[in-house]
TrEMBL record:
<feature type="domain" description="Type II secretion system protein GspG C-terminal">
    <location>
        <begin position="137"/>
        <end position="244"/>
    </location>
</feature>
<dbReference type="InterPro" id="IPR047937">
    <property type="entry name" value="Eex_IncN-like"/>
</dbReference>
<feature type="coiled-coil region">
    <location>
        <begin position="94"/>
        <end position="121"/>
    </location>
</feature>
<dbReference type="InterPro" id="IPR045584">
    <property type="entry name" value="Pilin-like"/>
</dbReference>
<dbReference type="GO" id="GO:0015627">
    <property type="term" value="C:type II protein secretion system complex"/>
</dbReference>
<dbReference type="InterPro" id="IPR010054">
    <property type="entry name" value="Type2_sec_GspG"/>
</dbReference>
<dbReference type="GO" id="GO:0015628">
    <property type="term" value="P:protein secretion by the type II secretion system"/>
</dbReference>
<protein>
    <submittedName>
        <fullName>Type II secretion system protein G</fullName>
    </submittedName>
</protein>
<dbReference type="Pfam" id="PF08334">
    <property type="entry name" value="T2SSG"/>
</dbReference>
<dbReference type="InterPro" id="IPR013545">
    <property type="entry name" value="T2SS_protein-GspG_C"/>
</dbReference>
<keyword id="KW-0175">Coiled coil</keyword>
Length: 245
């Protein structure tokens, strides 16, 4: 059976193109048997996933081919020198692009997780080897929490001045930006102070936005930081820091 005829009959257009090319390239170089071996080997070596493989007058399923190690060994040995021809075939490369991308993303994620674990281990080893380092880290955490409380106190004073001038706190929609820029949404403050009530918007010591609620849960309004983890709740350094505390 001719290779090109078999490929066309199987309606595998990309493999058909490949078969015709190999048939022309190898016609005067190797036997018909070797041609079929070349097809099988190149498909396997390049990572393509056909459902059948032609070998002489028989068509093997991929499973049957995989279950014959002697055949696979012969195919690989005889035809490995020809694998570049198939690897340069765009149809074959494209057919595996999504799998290659998925594998790369998985490897990247694994590397990131390993890097995070290594950093955590290094920090733990540093603390274990140097008790002073542990005390320094503890002091840094406490300093950040103190700074957050000071920020909250400053902004609460600004909010009270805003209410004193305008008869109300900023709405939830207007948020803390109303202390820096005059709101344009209703209710527009009629006596908004020139220059505003804060020089600029500030982030908490961990680089996250302060949270504002109107109406509040703990008071008329609530102003708070989510702490080191940037998430609600938590304990220790991750615990929320609020105007009600």
């Amino acid at each position: 059976m001719h290779m090109a005829d078999w490929c066309s009959r199987r309606s595998l257009s990309s493999f058909g193109t490949l078969c015709r090319r190999l048939d022309a390239n190898l016609k005067d170089q190797i036997t018909m048997k070797a041609k079929y071996l070349a097809i099988a080997a190149l498909l396997a070596l390049a990572g393509c996933k056909p459902t059948h493989i032609s070998f002489l007058d028989r068509i093997y399923t991929v499973e049957e081919f995989d279950q014959q190690p002697d055949l696979r060994k012969r195919v690989t040995t005889e035809c490995s020198s020809n694998q570049d021809a198939l690897k340069n075939d765009s149809n074959c490369v494209n057919s595996n692009a999504s799998q290659i991308k998925a594998d790369a993303e998985a490897e990247k994620k694994k590397a990131e997780e390993q890097a995070q674990a290594a950093k955590a281990l290094a920090a733990a080893m540093l603390v274990a080897a140097n008790p002073q380092a542990a005390r320094d880290l503890s002091r840094q955490d406490e300093a950040r929490r103190i700074a957050a409380k000071q920020d909250i106190g400053t902004m609460m004073q600004a909010l009270k001045l805003y209410r004193l001038d305008n008869g109300m706190y900023p709405t939830q929609e207007q948020g803390l930006r109303a202390l820096v820029e005059k709101p344009t949404t209703q209710p527009v403050p009629n006596n908004w102070k020139d220059g505003g009530y804060l020089e600029r918007m500030v982030l908490d010591p961990w680089g996250n936005s302060y949270q504002f609620l109107n109406p509040g849960v703990h008071g008329e309004i609530d102003l708070f930081s989510y702490g080191a983890d940037g998430k609600p709740g938590g304990e220790g350094n991750d615990a929320d820091i609020g105007s009600w505390q």
